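Section 5: illustrative case.
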């Protein structure tokens, strides 16, 4: 359960004392202000009441509030905010501030959400529900100490909520306190054993501890409970709990090696209707994991040829018709990396340095104990094969690193990596010829893994104009450089424990460099293996070197939802 709803204590007689038709009193009022009314009926009834123009002030504010509740059920948070804002204009209340703050939370706008919760707390009286929801917003920002403090206040203030214990446990888990997290979530289960959500959270901890059978048992019970009863609170979008439970059980089955049951659960996730960010993230993950498992069942695919020995000097880019890939496999690897360098493009501007960059980074990661899948000058089929093989290995890892050097482009706000056989043809669907970065992120999305994605892409090249000119009739909009990742900080689990680093700021282009390596990869290879250097501190050093080397023309950038300090090289 992500958030709780504070319902104002209003009597139906108070609302319907104004002069209006008997039909409105008998039909529209209860439909508008009953939390069990289906969303569409609630919205329609409230809209018709507003159209009567018989209410004003506090009574009209109440109607807008309930219509906002209806929009919330549908996951239409923009409309929730609009109606809640109108209700606040007419008559401020803690309930409306809470509802609007919760909608901002679901949109990933945590600071605005916190401001609304602060206003609600200032209006008083102290409410455990408001403290709980503000704790959620702090947790979304990664400020786990503040989140725990708010959950403490929620538990002290009341009403006593299993969800406050559950979310405090999840915050403790993010700080690495698995035992403290387990104690809190056990208390949530004790308070209300009929709730599926605490069982789902506990399953994540069991999986992090390697107790897969317990994870499967908890998610199985959560699925039974979710099917048996509606969500305990109307702030929970319908179907979201079941989608989450199936996703977590699928990941547990996959960790067990039971591909058949994992595929069944992922298929069930995709059958659900997703309206909130968390459910959409789970469905994206399920789609990728299901495809990977089906590929594993298929006949053996043609794999890319192995490159020269690892000890050889940095290779010159081979011909684009002969893609190469090196895969160092280890079924039990806990620290894995995917490194791809594409430079020998056949139909767009070739880049001399990406294969050299990839080779240097792969060598540095191997030196600090990573199992590395390395691909140089890969066409689309070879890229897909290498990426999918890596995602299967990453499912059993604690830390996964992805490094890509080469052409990259954003289309309609999504980032795509460009294989060496890309060819833009008028009227074609350009995105089908590239690799969607969101697919990689969805395949890595898992609360128990740390993911580091590093993109030395968006080199100074004519990619964006070519994409735009190739398919204008399809409404494709291409921009310079790469787009900031919209999936981090969206209020969902997608991106939790993930850092994405770009060689340059969103919308800007990175330099290929005049030497054997790009400015970014040269700095990265020097610092990535530094013992005891936390990854974000490492990237700060890289940023300083790149800014100095390019005289301020290129400023590396990163976006993080890491759940703690991460060290790539052992201290």
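Designed sequence:
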């Amino acid at each position: 359960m992500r958030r709780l709803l504070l319902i104002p204590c209003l009597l139906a007689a108070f609302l319907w004392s104004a002069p209006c038709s008997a039909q409105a009193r008998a039909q529209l009022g209860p439909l508008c202000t009953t939390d069990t009314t289906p969303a569409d009926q609630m919205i329609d009834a409230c809209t018709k009441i507003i159209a009567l123009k018989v209410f004003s002030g506090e009574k009209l504010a109440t109607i807008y509030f309930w219509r906002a509740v209806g929009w919330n059920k549908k996951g239409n948070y923009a409309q929730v905010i609009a109606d809640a804002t109108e209700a606040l204009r007419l008559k401020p209340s803690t309930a409306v501030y809470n509802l609007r703050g919760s909608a901002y939370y679901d949109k990933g706008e945590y600071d605005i959400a916190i401001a609304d919760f602060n206003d609600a707390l200032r209006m008083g009286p102290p409410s455990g529900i408001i403290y709980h929801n503000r704790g959620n917003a702090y947790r979304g920002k990664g400020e786990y100490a503040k989140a725990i403090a708010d959950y403490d206040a929620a538990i002290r203030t009341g009403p006593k909520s299993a969800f406050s214990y559950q979310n405090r446990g999840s915050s403790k888990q993010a700080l690495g306190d698995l035992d403290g997290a387990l104690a809190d979530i056990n208390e949530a289960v004790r308070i209300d054993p009929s709730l599926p959500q605490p069982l789902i959270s506990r399953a994540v901890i069991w999986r992090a501890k390697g107790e897969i059978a317990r994870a499967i048992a908890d998610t199985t019970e959560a699925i039974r409970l979710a099917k048996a009863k509606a969500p305990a609170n109307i702030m929970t979008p319908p179907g979201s709990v079941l989608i989450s439970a199936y996703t977590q059980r699928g990941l547990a089955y996959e960790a067990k090696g039971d591909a058949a049951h994992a595929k069944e659960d992922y298929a069930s996730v995709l059958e659900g209707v997703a309206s909130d960010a968390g459910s959409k993230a789970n469905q994206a993950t399920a789609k990728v994991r299901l495809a990977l498992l089906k590929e594993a069942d298929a006949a053996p695919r043609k794999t890319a040829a192995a490159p020269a020995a690892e000890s050889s000097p940095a290779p010159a880019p081979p011909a684009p018709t002969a893609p190469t890939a090196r895969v160092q496999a280890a079924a039990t690897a806990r620290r894995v990396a995917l490194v791809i360098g594409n430079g020998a493009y056949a139909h767009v501007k070739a880049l001399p340095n990406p294969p050299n960059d990839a080779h240097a980074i792969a060598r540095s990661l191997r030196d600090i104990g990573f199992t590395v899948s390395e691909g140089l000058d890969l066409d689309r089929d070879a890229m897909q094969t290498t990426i999918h093989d890596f995602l299967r290995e990453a499912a059993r890892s604690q830390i996964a690193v992805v490094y890509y050097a080469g052409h990259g482009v954003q289309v309609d706000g999504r980032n795509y990596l460009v294989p060496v056989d890309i060819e833009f043809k008028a009227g074609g669907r350009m995105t089908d010829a590239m690799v969607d970065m969101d697919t990689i992120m969805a395949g890595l999305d898992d609360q128990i893994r740390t993911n580091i994605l590093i993109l030395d892409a968006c080199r100074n090249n004519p990619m964006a104009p070519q994409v735009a000119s190739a398919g204008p009739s399809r409404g494709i909009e291409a921009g310079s450089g790469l787009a900031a990742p919209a999936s981090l900080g969206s209020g969902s689990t997608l991106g939790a424990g993930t850092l994405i680093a770009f060689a340059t700021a969103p919308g800007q282009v990175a330099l290929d460099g005049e030497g054997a390596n790009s400015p970014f990869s040269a700095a990265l290879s020097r610092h990535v293996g530094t013992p005891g250097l936390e990854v974000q501190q490492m990237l700060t050093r890289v940023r300083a070197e790149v800014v100095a080397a390019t005289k301020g023309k290129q400023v590396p950038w990163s976006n993080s939802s890491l759940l703690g300090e991460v060290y790539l090289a052992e201290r």
